[in-house]
Amino acid sequence: MMNNMMNNIMILADKAPDLKEVTDPIIAFINSVLTAAIPLVSSVGALYCVLLGVRYARAEEPQDREKAKQHLKGAIIGFVLIFILIVALRIATPIMVEWMNANSNAN
Does pTM top 0.85 for this prediction? Predict the structure, then answer.
């Protein structure tokens, strides 16, 4: 009885699950979101930086000018980091899919 149960466990352990049915819609969704995110982040970032630039140009007091300058620097750094992360995820997605397919029965 125990030996038979161990054999069944070993048979199940040798078979990797086929994840392709589950992951294909998720991967398609991630790719579509990433495709839309790149131009969206670029346009929102450009618009926000232009608005902060206008605020910087219209500032009359030195402390207001410095505050606007700091906001502009922070916005540029933030948008560059977001853009880099989106591109990195876009590059890494096929690599992760290939790894997942290699470790499942999806071949």
Answer: no
